[in-house]
Design goal:
By secondary structure, this protein is mainly α. It has 2 domains: 30 residues; 67 residues. It is built from 4 helices and no strands. It starts with 32 loop residues before the first helix and ends with a helix.
Length: 129
């Protein structure tokens, strides 16, 4: 099955859904070459069209676009999965340490990784604020 055969999710749509009443007004925006390049780059990064980017940014109440919010949520879900895996590893290390006399060598690396994940969570939250 190729990528064209897979239906696109509603969340990954580049264009807005068609309005049942149709489009009523058209707005033209003049931009410099630098502004156009910045718009194209930002729209590509968010995987939306430039008109969609402009409209969602202009109409958003919080200053962030729905695409940026979805990207932040996806990052938080990835971090949640990562944290669950790290927690499982730490539990295994603790069980091994409690069963014997020696402290496992990989415990130090696991704790460093936990700190790294915690810093990633902090960066993600700061990006949302």
């Amino acid at each position: 099955m190729s990528d064209e055969d897979v239906p696109r999710s509603r969340l990954s749509r580049r264009r807005r859904a068609n309005s049942p009443a149709g489009t009523k007004k058209r707005r033209d925006v003049w931009v410099t070459a630098e502004e156009e390049a910045a718009l194209i780059t930002k729209a590509a990064r968010q995987k939306v069209t430039v008109p969609n980017l402009l409209l969602t940014a202009a109409l958003s109440e919080s200053g962030e676009t729905p695409t940026e919010r979805r990207a932040a949520m996806a990052e938080l879900m990835a971090i949640h999965t990562l944290l669950a895996r790290v927690s499982n590893n730490l539990n295994q290390i603790a069980r091994h340490a409690n069963a014997g006399d020696e402290f496992p060598q990989d415990a130090k690396a696991a704790l460093a990784y936990v700190r790294e994940v915690a810093m990633r969570i902090d960066r993600t939250i700061e990006g949302l604020i």
